[in-house]
Amino acid sequence: MLSKFSILLCGLIFVLSAADPASAQDQNTVRVVPKDTMQITLSFADVVEASSPSVVNIYAKRRTKRSVPLFNDPFFQHFFQGFGLQTERKENSLGSGVVVDSSGLIISNLHVLKGAEDIVVVTHDHREYQAEIVLEDDKTDLAVIRLLNFSGTLPSLIFGDVYKARVGDLVLAIGNPFGVAQTVTSGIISGLARTQVNDNLYQSFIQTDAAINPGNSGGALINTRGELLGINTAIISPTGSSSGLGFAIPVNLIRPVVYTAKNDIPLNRAWLGFTPEPVDAATAEALGLSRPHGVLVGTILSGSPADEAGLQSGDLIVAADGNPIENPSNLRFFIATLIPENTPEIRFTLYGDSERDVRFPILFPPDDPPLDRRVIKGRNILSGAVVVNISPFITEYYGLPLGERGVLIQEVYGNSLAQRLGFESGDILRRLNKEPVSDVAMLVGFIDTSSPEQWLIEVTRKGETVGWQLR
Q: Residue 250, preceding bond cis, omega within 30 degrees?
């Protein structure tokens, strides 16, 4: 179904399409008349009045470079090397943000702020402040900014708990759609733990039919108690405007990002140390389950938290700290919501002849071997590539297969030789001229001392091995 629609990051500005007129109501519909003044005057005004000052408008400006199509041809690149082959233009991004600390700390979507050179925040009472980015997390599409030259306090929202939310609960979306100024829309929670919404590593979105439009990105999704449930982030729409399919990042995933920014520490997430595998219908029947649910423990890395907890391959996890675990996405989301400094361990419930609990230690993935991050320079095939050693930390951060080893291309600079030769960020270097690439030091030594007439290259890209030859 999604192939027929656009999945839009609602921080971008689109052209507003004319809506179809609403169809007439069924003449046989029973209309219930309010019975007293109390029912007539029921309103969300009090909760909106208390919550809306904590939602701000964000205007971000960035410069982007666009290649001149003619100069993409290698023939012209040869003759015009050293000349400007790109044009520069300015882009404006519109979005919303939520105050998460009274000192002027605000959370929004990373796609609203990424690459911004100038960020202006407009508060509920129309005051304007410059702001700077203090934390970016591309795994959740979240970013935290801080107001500059700000003295005083701002009202912040209380965090709710997505595990206490239910499908059918009333919710309100507050943001700045299409730049028309702060707007409040209402609806219900249409679904929980939605996956395959975008490219985020952690997929467990709140779905709502509260109207969310471009410009709402980074705004608040709150419950009727005024608690923050999520940050509005995307819509599915055939027209670019709201069609009743809006998605928000749950507040539980926001909490560790805010904690990290407030305490000015690196953003680290807990480590499982095993491969979580889904339960299909055949496996559920074999295990005597009434329906497919839970997560099977697959490969366990020696010395990992799973190994320390005594988990075994084939164990079935059905709950974590009492919260049901339906699939691997559920489990990854739950682990990502934890703050290891505050949570030393959790309780996994395992299914078997009789359910039993296992105490699972919450640890950071080790940075072993050390990253040894290097920018490859000079006249060689990898010039312009940034490479690191693969460790459990890198494996967890990039979602690589458990136990992966070797060298990862973390970044490829634009218009570098490495980019022109076809290397991409996320490639895992396997072999150069049939020599296994074991670590960064070996790689750098090999390319510095080798100058063959041709290079045989082998990388793993998105799970598939790719090889090519360069002369």
A: no
Distance CA 423, CA 405 (A): 19
> What are the Cα distances from residue 200, in Å, to 217, 332, 366?
15, 12, 23
Average pLDDT estimate for 180-202: 81
Q: What is the chain's percent helix, strand, coil content, to nearest 5?
A: 20, 35, 45
Highest CATH level, class, for 2-12+157-263:
mainly beta
**Token digits of residue 5:** 């629609």
Contact 61, 118 (CB under 8 A): yes
| Confidence (pLDDT) at 85 | 53
| Residues present in the chain in total | 471
Residues designated as active site = 111, 141, 217
Among the listed residues 156, 142, 158, 323, the one whose alpha carbon sits nearest the alpha carbon of residue 224? 158
- Between the alpha carbon of residue 333 and those of residues 171, 277, 451, the distances in Å are 22, 14, 47
DSSP of 69-134: GGGGSHHHHHHSTTS--EEEEEEEEEEEEEEEETTTEEEEEHHHHTT-SEEEEE-TTS-EEEEEEE
153 CB neighbour count, 10 Å cutoff: 11
Residue 326 vs residues 50, 218, 314, 330: alpha-carbon distances, Å: 36, 28, 16, 6
* 156 within 8 A of 100, measured Cβ to Cβ: yes
Cα–Cα distance between 253 and 137 in angstroms, integer?
11
**Buried b / exposed e along 407-430 (16+ C-beta atoms within 10 A):** bbbbbbeeebbbbebebeebbbbb
* The two domains 274-361 and 374-470 share their CATH topology (first three levels equal): yes
What pLDDT is attached to residue 26? 47
| CATH class name, domain 374-470 | mainly beta
Mean pLDDT across the stretch 142-168? 91
Q: Which CATH superfamily is domain 274-361 in?
A: PDZ domain (2.30.42.10)
User: What pLDDT does residue 66 have?
Assistant: 57
CATH number for domain 50-69+80-147, candidates 1.10.1040.10, 3.10.28.10, 2.40.10.10, 3.40.50.2300: 2.40.10.10
Q: Is the peptide bond before 305 cis (omega within 30 degrees of 0)?
A: no
Most distant pair of Cα atoms in the chain: their distance: 89
- Write out pLDDT tens, residues 263-304: 988 888 888 899 999 999 999 999 888 999 999 999 999 889
By C-alpha distance, which of 58, 338, 98, 57 is closest to 227? 98
Cα separation, 466 vs 81, whole angstroms: 30
Residues 6 or more apart from 379 whose CB is under 8 A from it? none
d(C-alpha 432, C-alpha 448), whole Å = 13
* Domain ranges across the chain: 2-12+157-263, 50-69+80-147, 274-361, 374-470
